[in-house]
Amino acid sequence: MRKIEDKRDKNRTFKKDSSFLKAEENVFDVPTLKLLYTLANKGYITEMGGSISTGKEANVFYATGNEGEVAVKIYRLTSGTFKAMDPYILKDPRFSNIRHSRKDIVFAWTQKEAQNLLRIRKAGVRAPRPIVNDRNVLVMEFMGKDKIPFPLLKDTPLDDADAQNLFDQIIEGMRRLYVRAHLVHSDLSEYNILVDVEKMEAVIIDVGQAVTLDHPNVREFMARDIENILRFFKKYGIKEDKKIISDRVKER
Ligand code: ADP
Ligand code: MN
């Protein structure tokens, strides 16, 4: 009896709230929409706001929930370039036993992103706090203020002193990631770093592909991250040697 009651209640809420994602109906498959309703019923999402970003594999939305402003990152199950995920996840020892269907890779990827965010934060690097994740949806702390996300590093106007400050923060962040969290971001660039301009603080995002140091390609991934950062900061007069930076990142 009780079970039936619960079921009916659930359906009612489902119906009542079904307008708030209407606009996204074509983007998301039915299981994803159902999952969003479940997260809404649990209070993680009370109001879905606008789209922040439409990427190759995921959409990011602004929302509010019981924990305040949140960002909802939704990996699409129906379109996207999931082959790009393979080298990062299939050789990660933490995920060695996943089945290799696309759906399973996406679910493992979402899980890995949430785990990585936690590890990164524990290492003392600023990154969004993961709030809840399930299947292909990650709800995390919104990095921004009054509905406006912090700008990407690439879009932040900087004077040379700001640039030097952020550069030092980013290299120190990579060092903490490497030495304390045993992680390499593996997609680090001015596109995956936000800037809290008021505090002039770097915020690391998009960590689904970050790998542990036992990943076979970790050296190559780290070299690429360092090259991206050096390339970006060159125009602010920062010229460092990549070998010296690499040594600095590994310093205990
Ligand atoms: P993608 O895989 O599509 O690159 P990202 O994780 O980089 O996904 O997110 C895409 C964009 O969404 C980011 O460039 C940033 O502007 C915004 N974004 C992502 N996470 C957050 C967050 N926690 N708070 C605010 N904005 C975010
Ligand atoms: Mn990104």
UniProtKB/TrEMBL annotation:
It catalyses: L-seryl-[protein] + ATP = O-phospho-L-seryl-[protein] + ADP + H(+); L-threonyl-[protein] + ATP = O-phospho-L-threonyl-[protein] + ADP + H(+). Keywords: ATP-binding, Kinase, Magnesium, Metal-binding, Nucleotide-binding, Serine/threonine-protein kinase, Transferase. One of its GO terms (molecular function) is metal ion binding. PROSITE patterns: PROTEIN_KINASE_DOM (PS50011), PROTEIN_KINASE_TYR (PS00109). The keyword Metal-binding applies. InterPro entries: Kinase-like_dom_sf, Prot_kinase_dom, RIO-type_Ser/Thr_kinase, RIO_dom, RIO_kinase, Tyr_kinase_AS. It comes from the Archaea. Residues 46-252 form the Protein kinase domain. The keyword Membrane does not apply. Its EC number is 2.7.11.1. It is an enzyme of class 2 (transferase). Gene3D superfamilies: Phosphorylase Kinase, domain 1, Transferase(Phosphotransferase) domain 1. Belongs to the protein kinase superfamily. RIO-type Ser/Thr kinase family. This is non-specific serine/threonine protein kinase. It comes from Methanolapillus millepedarum.
